[in-house]
Amino acid sequence: MACTVYTTPSLSMPNPHLHQRQVIFFTSTKRNQFFRGQNRAFTVSCSAEAKTVVIGLAADSGCGKSTFMRRLTSVFGGAAEPPKGGNPDSNTLISDTTTVICLDDYHSLDRTGRKEKGVTALNPRANDFDLMYEQVKALKEGIPVEKPIYNHVTGLLDPPELIQSPKILVIEGLHPMFDERVRDLLDFSIYLDISNEVKFAWKIQRDMAERGHSLESIKASIESRKPDFDAFIDPQKKYADAVIEVLPTQLIPGDNEGKILRVKLIMKEGSKHFSPVYLFDEGSTINWIPCGRKLTCSYPGIKFSYGPDSYFSNEVSVLEMDGQFDRLDELIYVESHLSNLSTKFYGEVTQQMLKHSDFPGSNNGTGFFQTVVGLKIRDLYEQIVAERASAKTEAKV
C-alpha cells in the first residue's frame, strides 16, 4: 500500500505556496507507520476501511458559521478547542470526534497581496484550490497533513500546522463547494444563506458594537465584496444538501431591524443518508401557529410552515419558522410535532438548545435549525460507519 503525506514547505522559501508530497510505501498490512521529517515525527495511519466523513459548510463572513460549528461539535460531545501547543492564532478546532478546518487557511495571497492585486478573499485567484483538494482528500483517506494557517490578526500566512485525520472533518468557509474536486469529497454539505437585509443588520451589530467600525466603512465593505460574493459564493448553494435561509420577518409589515427573523430549512430530497424533517404529515403543505396555552408567544408571535418545493431544479422539503421563542423550555412542544429528527431520546433538540441558550440565534429559527441539522449529521455519520462495518464483515465472509 502507498500512502501520501501532503505538506506545505516553510514560508521562508522562495515560493511558499508550492506544495510537496512525500510517498511512503508499505510492504505489510500494518495500519500505522512512523514518519520523521521536517524536524518533527508523527504517525501515519493508513486504513482503507476507516475513511473520514467530510462535511462542508459554506457562507459569507459574519453569517454564523462559527456558532453553527459550536452547535455541531456539541452534538458529538466534547468541547472544540484549538490544537494544543500550536499557533495561538490557529483557526482549527478539534474535539473528541470532529476537526473543523477554516478554508481561509488556503488563501494563496495574504492581506497585502490581495490589496496589491485588487482582489478580495472571495475571489478564487486569492485561494489555492489544488492544495485544498489534496489535503482534504488526504485527510479523508486517513493521512495527516501539514496545513497552512492564515492569520486573521496579522493578515499574513503563518507556518503550517500538523492536522491528524479525524472521524469527522468539517471544512467551513467561503468555498467548500466551489471546486468540483473538493465538492465530490463531501459526504454532506450545508449552505448558510443570509439575505442582504439581515446580513447588513448583523454586520452593523458585530462591526460597530464589537469592532468599532463606522457605518460608512461597513457599507463600503459590503459593497466592495458583493460582486465577488454574487459570482463565487452564492452559486454554491445549488449544490448543498441543506440550506438554512435567513430572511426578514413577515409577521411585522415593513420591518427592517433584523431582530425578528424568518428562517427556512431547505432539505434536498434523495440525498444519501439524509431524510428531511417534516411537520405533522410528510409531503403535505401545512401552516401552523402554535402560540397558546403550551407555547408562550409575545408579539408578533410564531408561525411554522412546511411543504414540498423546487430549489434549483431539485425537489426539496421546506420547514420554515417565523418569529422567536420566549421560553426555550417550551420548545419541546414544537419538537414533539416534528418527525424524522434523528434524536436519541424525546426532547433532545430542546436539551441542546437549552444547553447553549447563550449562543446567538437560540431564540429563533437560526439556532433551532442549526441544532436540527447537527443531529441529522450525527445520524448520517452513524449510518456511514455502520455501512462500512457491515461491508467489512461481508468481505471477511
From TrEMBL:
EC class name: transferase
Classification via InterPro entries: P-loop_NTPase, PRK, PRK/URK
Stored SUPFAM superfamilies: P-loop containing nucleoside triphosphate hydrolases
Keywords noted in UniProt: ATP-binding, Calvin cycle, Chloroplast, Disulfide bond, Kinase, Nucleotide-binding, Photosynthesis, Plastid, Transferase, Transit peptide
Reaction equations catalysed: D-ribulose 5-phosphate + ATP = D-ribulose 1,5-bisphosphate + ADP + H(+)
Chain ranges of the Phosphoribulokinase/uridine kinase domain: 54-252
GO CC terms: chloroplast
Localization terms from the record: Plastid, Chloroplast
Example GO molecular function: phosphoribulokinase activity
Any one GO biological process: reductive pentose-phosphate cycle
Pathway: Carbohydrate biosynthesis; Calvin cycle
Chief site of localization: plastid
EC number: 2.7.1.19
Homology family: Belongs to the phosphoribulokinase family.
Matching NCBIfam families: PRK07429.1 (NF005655)
Protein name per Swiss-Prot or TrEMBL: Phosphoribulokinase
